[in-house]
Structures are given as C-alpha cells and as structure tokens.
Input
Amino acid sequence: MRIWKGGGVPLYYENAIGKIYYEVHGAKNAPPVIFTHGVMMDHRTFREQVEALKEEYQVIVWDMPYHGKSSSIDEGLHLSGTAADFLIELMDHLMIEKAILGGLSFGTIVSQRVAWKNPDRVTAMIQISGQSLYPKGSWFLNLLKPLFHIITTLQSEKRGAISFAKHKTITPHTLEYLEDTYLRTGKNTFIHLTKELIGDLVTGIPAPLKQPMLILYGDHEPRAVQKMHRKWHSNAANSEIVMIENAHHITNQDHPEAVNQAIRSFVFSL
Output
C-alpha cells in the first residue's frame, strides 16, 4: 500500500466524549474544505483530494470516533450524530465560521447531519458514493440488522476484511488499504456501525437540504445504487451529479483524477 506523506499538521481535539485526530493542510486563511471518511476507513481516504486542493484551500481531514487515531466512544451514543457534533466543535476550535463539507459513504451521512442541524455553517457539500437521508427509508430496513449480524459474525475477521474491500474498489492499492483499515478497526465495530447506518436511513431528515451539492458515484456501483444517486439528485434542487467512469464505491481512490476534476470545477464555481 502506498504511504501518504501529506505534510499536514497532526493534531487532536478532545472533549468529554472522546478524542479525535485531524490534520490541516494548506493555508490557514484559505476557504476551508473538511472531508469525512466512511465506516472502517480513516483520514487517508482523501489523500488525493488533499494534494489536489491544498494550494487553493485549507483542507482538513479527520478520523471519526472508532477509526484511525481517534478514540472509541460509548456505544450508547449514535455515531453520525456524535460525529456531526464533533465536526461543529472542531470548526469552532479552528475558528471556522463556514466550510465546504465533503464525505464518502457514511461520511455523507455525517455531512447531512451537520447541514441539517447547522445550515448556516455549511457553504456546500461534496457527496461521494453516499446515501441521501431524504426521503427517509422504510422501517422494514431494520429487518436487515439481525441478518447482517449473523452473516458477518460467521465470517472470520480476515475473510470479512477481504469481502468488505472487494465489494468497494477495483484498484489493488485501495483493496489493500481497506483490508488494513478493516482489520485495525475490527469486525465488532463494523457490525455495530452498520446497524447504526441502517438506523440512520430509517430515521432520515424531514426535508431536502438547500446547500449546493455535488453528487459523485462510480460506474461500477450496482444499478440500484446508481439509480439511488440519480434520485438523490432529482430531490435536491441545488445539486449537480457526475458519474465517474472506471470507479466503484471508493470512487475518489479508484479514479482520483476524474473525481478531483469534478470537485475543483464545483468548488471553483461557488
């Protein structure tokens, strides 16, 4: 796996709930862009985006609770809401009034939570391989929780890591990265957080978000997932959508050049 030496400033922010790791790249007085990774990943997910944006923007990447160099939290606390609160506190800590929020997969859920609770703090959103919280999903999605628990529990941790990775990427270096982060984070955390993700979709938010939004997804995603992204775009009046060729769920690592081009075009237009 390629080792990212991004040159960012490694820092921690801590409150009564836990401690999160974050890095700041680029000029302090530049417009801020904050990226949030997906479940079983970490801040390194966005290494290509940091390199592409840091000359014009202040780019912040971080590890959500349970992930990377951040601490775990009480399992009674819901991750997406807690992560959204952490993100706002981190913005306050860094004296950032408004930011562009980028997210991948579960990170898009966190971005939407922030934008719904604190709309005046979000300039725009970059949603990569995500899931819209509006409209909320059917209650019957909850029936997937016990089935998912049984299937995942029966797998060894190594087999779970391989399965997790191969269903999300088409590039060898990203495959290796996902297997590594899965094993570091652990199968029990994966089970816990996937159940929470299902709960997020069922809870949803009551109305579409109004901030400008860029929706990106890969052409190797299943057709149902591609259709879901197009529906998200149709429900979000102030959105753009781009399908990235030669990319799967970890779209920004499978084809970083195309993703970076789309992101730069979007943020420069704001």
Summary: Residues 1-6 have pLDDT under 50 and may be disordered. Residues 9-137+207-269 form a domain with the Rossmann fold fold (CATH 3.40.50.1820). The longest strand covers residues 19-25.
